[in-house]
Amino acid sequence: HGYIGREGPLHHERLQVPLFVVGPGVLPGGRIATLSASSDLPATLAARLGVTWPGRDLLGHSPAPEVIVLGTPQERGLRTASWYLRLPSTGDPQLFEKPADRLERLNLANVHLSVIEELLPLLPPATSGDS
Length: 131
Prior knowledge:
The protein has three helices and four strands; from the N terminus they run H-H-E-E-E-E-H.
């Protein structure tokens, strides 16, 4: 989408952060295919060090969340295992099929209106800091 760095819309290139973990009990070449958030990283690293930290250990056996809520002052989003709903502060909602459309190139909002109606109630209301 042409954005690098902290500014820009909530698209794949701003949300995906690779994490490589090496050590005892970590399977080589493993990949975690469940939903995760940056808030899971401290708990995952702490668990490797034998320290308890709030959050979900990605290498543990905690159940994955069904949705992840994303937000900046400019927009909000909701990610499930199958969909990414992006709500820019201006313009129409955008809907991308996951994981098929990894780079979020095909907006399916006009094709899957029922999915948007199903996902919108899962998104918390905008806070006063959101636009």
